[in-house]
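Handout, section B. The chain below has 360 residues.
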Amino acid sequence: MDSSLVLEDGTVVRGARFGASTKVFGELVFNTNMTGYTEALTDPSYRGQILLMTYPLIGNYGVDPAWMESDTIQVRGFVVKEACATPSHARSQKALGPFLSEYRVPGLQGADTRALTIRIRSQGTMRAALVPEGEDLEEAAKIVRTMPYPDRRNLVAEVSCREPIRYPGTGKRTIVVVDCGVKRNILREAQRYADVVRVPWDTAADDILALKPDGIIVSNGPGDPAHPDLQAATVRAVRELAGQVPLLGICLGHQILALAFGSKTFKLKFGHRGGNQPVKDLRTGRVHITSQNHGFAVDADSLNPSEFEVTHVNLNDRTVEGLVHRELPVFSVQYHPEARPGPWDNEYIFREFVERLKGP
């Protein structure tokens, strides 16, 4: 037992360190997936957070860098019940511990992750620290209790690209992806239908239009969609683009689209993070099993019913999972259609978007 997880409510959980031997601070959140830990660790939407997996055995099929959703591990720390040190998979290139060490991210194993999940569900996400042996736990606890939540920062600016990046696709049309922390698989899905230009989160509407897009995707990403920096840049640009080019919002992009039309967002108690979230399509009555990773949601009562129709709802808590504008080519989903844990349930979202695009 050479590492500790320190929570803001005073809880201290001892465990064995794996990965890097560093002290980190963040917001403790849980993910209910049985698999997909490489994708979760590298998802930019986890920026600033310490990730806890509810499934008891993590790492049994190793790590292949091709499964990464960004260029680096995005989480601050990783907490599991048991980390497999001897993985078995034909594509595995390294075990989970060395993967964490490579990116200087600490992990803790031996924690009762399901008891911790129950605590988070009861009290909400909490500020926390991972502290290696020899460090002052009291000092770490003091910092945890007084530090701001990570979403007070502009986390999107930390994970977005710095300049436009082009990705070859079909050559038939162009899709611009506003990068608020985009996952690689969203880019790959867009490339199936078009050439893709990925632009920074604060790109002005005129600069986006200068790329002559047939459609625009506003991507997933970390943090508070109502952060003042996002309001001044991304939300403003989206409002100016609405009606000029078809828009699709995914996850954070869904929230940004709602804000662009005057709606509000709020922070969920413990968020939706996992691959088993049931979402009902109100237009068809069909229920989809979805992959999600977000801590904020659109306030349903703030939506203007003359502008937006709610198309999808979460069957666990009835939060808004999809929107479509009644007149403009603007729609969005809160979940990740590119992840498809169904496994093919939500591919239709991209097809619907492409149908709205200009050109062949």
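Note. Residues 228-241 form the longest helix (14 residues). Compare this with the example in section A.
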